[in-house]
Design brief:
Rossmann fold, five-stranded parallel sheet, 10 helices, globular
Length: about 290
Amino acid sequence: MSKKSKKKHKHNSADDRGAVSGFEGVGNGQQKMPSKEYGAELFRLQVELVKLQEWAKATNARIVIIFEGRDAAGKGGMIKRIMERVSPRVFRLVALPTPTERQKTQLHAQRYVEKLPSGGEIVIFDRSWYNRAGVEHVMGFCTDAEYREFLRDCPAFEGFLVSQGIILLKYWLDVSKEEQHRRFLERIEDPTKRWKLSPMDLESHRRWYDYSRTRDAMLAATDTPAAPWYIVPSDNKKRAHLNCIAHILNSIPYEEIPYTPPKLRRRQKAKGYVEPAEKHRLVPQRW
């Protein structure tokens, strides 16, 4: 591998300038980013994600990226931008539904462990085992004892994952009270977004401070040197996308794998093949 190919890629991000302090209203007051500037920066970062993908395949790296945050914090849009130009066979999204009756009798982390990456895979959790420290606790889906056990045991569990060579990145997307309210109203009014609203989402809107207390306790108990939390201010979605993707790339010591363009061979000869005269049903050409 050449010296040029071994060069590690670094990207400027807000996180590089220091940790974010506080939560409420973080990121408010930022000017809108022009779409052209955003598109150019996003494409540049997505090219690097493809390089990360090829490095993971070549080195059998195992990477886990966790996205947590309140409802309407922008987790879905963030994940969409990350996975837009990469292979779903390498970047694998895990968004588990409500556990079955059988799964409720298992160890809490059991169904998540089944989804952890094999060599050459990058697994993105759209919500994760941290459900226990969030919605399950606030909504009473687990006992107080189960909640306390999770906060006690989670650092040891994540420390084990890291000790086994898994790269673990945890992101909390932080949306302000005002912006979450605006996004909920937008979902109610927009017929293409109504499916995003569930009774649980509406309850999370009402119980803002219950979720705030639970978030604070979760971060205090599980922000460890081995598996730290990173806060992503997400009131401004475009800036959040760029800052978070840049941080992911900065946090993984990937290297560019040299690419040898393949040569397209000349097509075979027809050898008498003729397109059939019978035509099948054609989609109406309205545009």
